[in-house]
Amino acid sequence: MDVKGLAAVVTGGASGLGRATAMKLVEAGAKVALLDRNVELARQTAAELGHGTVAIEVDVSSAESAEAAFEQAKAANGPTRICVNCAGIGGSVRIVDRQGKPMELDHFRRIIEVNQIGTFNTLRLAAAQMAAEEPLNELGLRGAIVNTASVAGYEGQIGQAAYASSKGGVIGLTICAARDLSSFGIRVNTIAPGIMLTPLLKGLPDETLDMLGKQVPFPKRTGHDHEYASMAMELIRNDYMNGETVRVDGAIRMGPR
Ligand SMILES: NC(=O)c1ccc[n+]([C@@H]2O[C@H](COP(=O)([O-])OP(=O)(O)OC[C@H]3O[C@@H](n4cnc5c(N)ncnc54)[C@H](O)[C@@H]3O)[C@@H](O)[C@H]2O)c1
After folding, report:
1. How far is the CA of 138 from the centre of ligand 1 (A)?
2. What's domain 7-248's architecture?
C-alpha cells in the first residue's frame, strides 16, 4: 500500500511512539491527523511535523469523543485509510498490596478502558470509514490498521495485572479483527514493543534506564521510537501482513519483576 496522499489517523500521536510514526507518515506523503487527549501537545507536534498535520482532541475511551474526532479528521483530510493506535496509559499496582488491601477496581477498569476498549473504539470507527470507500488497489484493499500492545501482553510483570490484561486483549483482537474486516479489504496488525525510550520512560534515572537496557539480549539498550515507527510503516505498506502481532523488543522476555 502506497501511503502517499492517504488520510492517516494516529491516536496518541502527540508523543512518543505515535509521534514518531506520524513523522514517518508525513515524510511518506500521508495526510495526518493526531488524535490525543493532550491536545496542547498534539498542536505543538502538528506544528513541528507541518505539511498540514492536524491536531484533534479525543478521549479514546469515550464513544462520543472518538466519533466526533473521526468526523473532524475526515472533514480535514478525507476518509481514514490508515489508523495507528498508540494512545495508552501505564500504571503499576499489585493485586493485593503488602497491607492486604485489594487493588481498587477503578484502577483496573481505567487501564482496560483506555488501552483495550480505546483501541477497539478507534479501530471500529476507522474501519467504518475505510469500508465506505472504494478499494485502493486491484486486491480490494481499503485500508490498514496498526494497534499497539506490549510485551506485557505476553509476560506481564508483578504489578501489571491491569496493563498486561489490556494489552493481551489487544493481541487477542488482532486476528479476530483481521478476519472480521477481511471482506472489506482492511488489514489489521499489532506491534508489541519491548522497552522503548519515550517520554513514558525518559523521566527515569539514568541508572534505571541502563539497568533496563542491559536486560535486552541484543542490542543491549532500550528501543528507539523510530524503530517502532519503522515497523508500523512496514505493517502499513506490506499487503501480505495481516492478523499478526509483531514483537519489536530486542528479544527481551520480561521476568516477574
Ligand atoms: N514506551 C514503551 O516502552 C512502551 C512499551 C510497550 C508498549 N507501549 C505502548 O505504546 C503506546 C504509546 O506509548 P508511548 O511510550 O509513546 O507513551 P506516551 O505517553 O509518550 O504517548 C501516549 C500518548 O497517548 C495519549 N493518551 C493517553 N490516554 C489517552 C486517551 N484516553 N485518549 C487519547 N489519547 C490518550 C497521551 O496523551 C500521549 O500523548 C501505549 O499504548 C503504550 O502502552 C509503550
Report:
1. 35
2. 3-Layer(aba) Sandwich (3.40)
